[in-house]
């Protein structure tokens, strides 16, 4: 498609001058006469007459009927002057040549008419081809646009591309307010006296303005568009002051229909997206309520039972039983707190209302915080860490990433055996830090390497507590850090989770804090 303004629309403009056609006519007749005079000894009179038909056809095709008629007249005059006795005069000694002159002129007239018609048909065919191609490109780009908010700007950009000038898109809202949706170029607005024209176009759903019988004196054309429940209009101020020709009206109407369908599709897309969000919200709410009612029941029952026992039989209990019940209350309260924290974290991550506050923090601090939280529930599980110097500090949100470390460590502690330590390994690969945590438990069931990161998906191993939110929170937090997490089975048994996080260059003031010693392995007991 031609990208120049007004490339696919024509206007009714007067032809300022036809002088080039008459000049070309005289020149071609002169050249033809010279050739005929040079070959007069070999050519007969009918041959010479036929020779003069060539410039008539050429001028008729290129410059139109007026120049072709002039060429016919020049040809008759040249033939009479140079090739009819007496030579070099316009006198005619034989009256039969008058019929020859008449036939030559009439044939030239007919040829010029046919050539002019052919040229007009060719021009119309090319114009229709340009219009069809323009609408095709417009429709294809609309279909490939996934963002509904970009549709108005796309419509106006193509309107400027097709018709030139300036364009604007207006809509009448449900309360009757006329609103400017978009304009190209930015900031363009029709004159104030044109707002009434736009409102009339929106309300009556009829074209108005320049080139129409309604408000023909305004300096733009308003085309109606329909977008479902709301009505609107697109205004086009053409580059030229001449109104669009009749041949452009089908293109204007087709463009308005395309724009209406595009805006309607964008509106339906937004409504469908809103409906999908509402459905997901309801599903999330239903699932959270179901899960909360199920998983909170256990710790609440334990806390209620222990508290009731202390209240009713506290005087008869010895010190060990009293301490055990208190420990049960504290442990189950911490479990319930962890569950509620995971629920709230997942809601915040799903809603996008949890911005990152990135800091440089030693990874050992995150491990230490996780040990403190899980020490009472898993007091004797050994943990080993191997941390390269370059990975000693990681650039993460400490609060959010602490949840990742806690959830991954708790998941490993649930499935690990007491005779094999849980391993943490950190190293750098290019500009990414790689974190791996492994255990020697039963591993991941085949086919669940990706699904275990979905919400509320739990391992089928019986007797393992959990809500199925821990790994989902890990993936959400890591994706918010533009990282990746994968699960795989270790060759000699057990599961391993591999995290990759992009890392910026370490600031100069933190470089001395790096440990100059080679990577060391430390064993800790949680």
How is this structure best described in words?
Helix content is 51%, strand content 15%. It is of the alpha+beta class and 526 residues long. The protein folds into four domains: 19-138, no CATH class; 146-271, GAF domain (Beta-Lactamase); 296-351, no CATH class; 359-525, Heat Shock Protein 90 (2-Layer Sandwich), CATH 3.30.565.10. Helix 3 runs antiparallel to helix 4 (65-83). The model is unreliable at 1-17 and 513-526 (pLDDT under 50).
Q: How is the topology of this model organized?
A:
Elements: H1 19-38, H2 45-51, H3 53-63, H4 65-83, H5 96-144, H6 151-163, E1 166-172, E2 178-184, H7 195-204, E3 208-209, E4 221-227, E5 230-237, H8 249-295, H9 297-313, H10 319-351, E6 359-362, H11 363-374, E7 382-387, E8 393-396, H12 398-415, E9 422-429, E10 432-438, H13 470-480, E11 484-489, E12 495-502, E13 520-525
Parallel strand pairs: 7-9
Antiparallel strand pairs: 1-2, 1-5, 3-4, 4-5, 6-8, 7-13, 9-10, 10-12, 11-12
Helix pairs in contact: 1-3, 1-4, 3-4, 3-5, 4-5, 5-6, 5-8, 6-8, 9-10, 10-13, 11-12, 12-13
User: What is the CATH fold-level name of the largest domain?
Assistant: Heat Shock Protein 90
From the N-terminal CA to the C-terminal CA, the straight-line distance is: 70 Å
| General shape | elongated
Number of strands: 13
Mean pLDDT: 76
Percentage beta strand: 15-25%
Instruction: Tell me the radius of gyration.
Output: 43 Å
Q: If classified by CATH, what would the architecture of the largest domain be?
A: 2-Layer Sandwich
Q: Can you identify the CATH class of the largest domain?
A: Alpha Beta
- Taken in chain order, the helices and strands follow as HHHHHHEEHEEEHHHEHEEHEEHEEE
Oligomer designation = single chain
